[in-house]
Amino acid sequence: MKIIQRQMIAYIFLSIIILLIASILFFISFPLEKWSSLWERTVMDIPLLLFAPSLSILTGLIFGLISGLAWRSQVKSVTEVMQGVELGKQFNEESLDPELKPIWIQLKKIQKQMIEQVKLSQKLATEKAENQEKRVQDIVSQERTRLARELHDSVSQQLFAASMLMSAITESKTSNDDSETKQLLMVEEAIHQSQSEMRALLLHLRPVALKGKSLQEGMKELLVELTQKVPMDITWKIEDVKLDKGVEDHLFRILQESVSNTLRHSKSSKLEVLLIKRDEFMILRVVDDGIGFDVETTKTGSYGLQIMHERAVEIGGIMKIVSLQNTGTRLEVKVPLMNVEGVESNDKGTFC
Questions:
Q1: pTM (2 d.p.)
Q2: For a FRET experiment, which of 6, 45, 224, 321 has its CA 20 to 30 Å from that of 350?
């Protein structure tokens, strides 16, 4: 039953009870000689015996309707505020019915507690996601390191042994069959290419991290390691310039990706790395003498090139690649610098 109906019924009963009590008191105080006079007396041509109850019922209906509408309005306002609280909306209790102020105060407290609970839940969810992401990254890093170690200890060593064996067979071959010699050279070349692919894969799986080192120190460590593992002439010139940590990290990752691409695809015999400061710009340049590629065709489909470009953009720099078929490739990243300190040049000769 609706609140208006309940209020109307309640007020009708109340008015009837008041009428009965008033009638009883009236008749006790002023006894009637004839009860039939109640029917004979009229008000607006209506017998008093009917008029009084009808007026009482009508009065109850009117007051019940007014009371029901008032109650419905208050309940509606409370419902709207509670719905707003559920949705996290703020409300001003001063603009609401002052008679319900205790309710508004309690709702305000509940809303405050809910907001604090939501903030706490979001904080816990964020921490959980960060911890989970960190755990996943740790697991991935450990697995990558394990795979790199196993590949280095097994497949890489087997490729090296196969390369040595093929070299020995080729050198000791006494037959004058040119086709057989050509096939053996092709097999040897395929093994060498596989070794280059394996070195690039190991570089991807177990990239050298700066870990507190400067960019210059990390670059030197990476290049020295490559000279020990790759049959390629590697030269570098690295100027000692103080950079922000974010800039150093991005430039180092770009160098890693570029060197990895060189090992996998260029078939080059020389690699030059340059890190210098010129006219308030930091320039990273990687040059090889490999087979080159079509920049416009490869750029859209190469994930590595896209990652390097995004890293350069993130530190406010630009990346350019120039590559000619059978001539080589030059990658250059140019990053603007605001504040730089003294510059020291570190040149390194050619490694065999």
A1: 0.50
A2: 321
